[in-house]
Specification:
alpha/beta; 9 strands; binds flavin mononucleotide
Length: about 280
């Protein structure tokens, strides 16, 4: 699937039964959550800020900065929403994270929720991703049974509930405010901005919305440190990125590479070169 030396969001996908909690934990899964819960919430946000990771859903907004916009002295509930709508033609990267490593996403979400004091999260998944939604739900169920989700996470008195919500297959519901409308049960039409979701989001409450790949990078950022992640990629575009390569190449697929590599390298060294040379 991938040929880059450093793997962050695809580090587990080659393992048999990588989607199960048992395999995820065997290879260090949920250690990052345990670490995060020993840190102050602000320090988790700072670590993500230091990593420089930018949103992987398209707009490239720095994730740590987005989290820091959630008002702290505010009695309203805070929501965390994962954008798994992935409707962009030719893009199928989030789908592979969900299929092969759903616990990586769930762990990233629990850490993000802790950082912004959210007790309720949603994964809004594209309607056509039927089997992926099933697999995700199975992973959520496993996480609840293991005390990784719920009212007393890892017996630390931290609360976070997570629901999988299937969309109906509308491209526009990938846009974050259209998504929120749809999640509220309305027609998925985008809202005017400002106000931004960090202040007026789901049910008019402070809301963080991040893409699957963004949230899946969080466990490694917290466990290995923001500086480690910032050392990957190039200045201002740190870390690794999934690229879905299709068309006339010898090895179409999803590839995780450090940001900044030339397109030619991606095509030739990873996707096997252009068909027929
Ligand atoms: C028309 C349109 C469609 C979009 N579709 C998606 C999508 O399918 N998945 C996604 O993560 N972001 C999509 N976005 C971007 C989201 O609005 C938003 O920026 C993103 O979910 C924020 O997460 P991030 O900061 O982690 O990237 C879309 C934006 C527009 C304008």
């Amino acid at each position: 699937m991938s040929g880059s030396a450093v793997q962050v969001v695809f580090k587990n996908i080659h393992r048999p039964n990588s989607h199960t909690l048992a395999v995820y934990q065997e290879f260090g899964g949920y250690q990052s959550l345990a670490k995060a819960l020993t840190m102050a919430r602000e320090d988790v946000i700072d670590e993500v800020k230091r990593s420089g990771v930018r949103g992987r859903g398209g707009a490239g907004f720095p994730a740590g900065l987005k989290w820091s916009f959630i008002p702290k002295e505010d009695a309203r509930p805070k929501y965390l929403v994962c954008n798994a709508d992935e409707g962009e033609p030719g893009t199928c990267k989030d789908r592979d994270i969900i299929r092969f490593d759903p616990h990586l996403l769930i762990e990233g979400m629990i850490i993000a929720a802790y950082a912004v004091s959210s007790e309720q999260g949603y994964i809004y998944i594209r309607g056509e991703f039927y089997r992926e939604a099933e697999r995700l739900q199975a992973a959520v169920d496993e996480a609840y049974a293991a005390g990784l989700l719920g009212d007393n996470i890892l017996q630390k008195g931290i609360r976070f509930h997570l629901a999988v919500h299937r969309g109906a297959g509308a491209y526009i519901c990938g846009e974050e405010t259209g998504l929120l409308e749809s999640l509220e049960g309305k027609k998925g039409q985008p809202r005017l901005k400002p106000p931004f979701p960090a202040n007026i989001g789901l049910y008019d409450c402070p809301t963080v919305i991040n893409n699957v790949e963004t949230l899946a990078a969080v466990p490694d950022i917290v466990l290995r440190g923001g500086d480690w992640y910032a050392g990957l990629g190039v200045a201002k575009s740190s870390g690794t990125k999934l690229f879905s390569v299709s068309g006339h190449v010898n090895k179409p697929g999803n590839y995780e590479v450090e940001l900044g590599i030339p397109l030619k390298t991606l095509i030739n060294d990873h996707a096997g070169g252009v068909r027929g040379g």
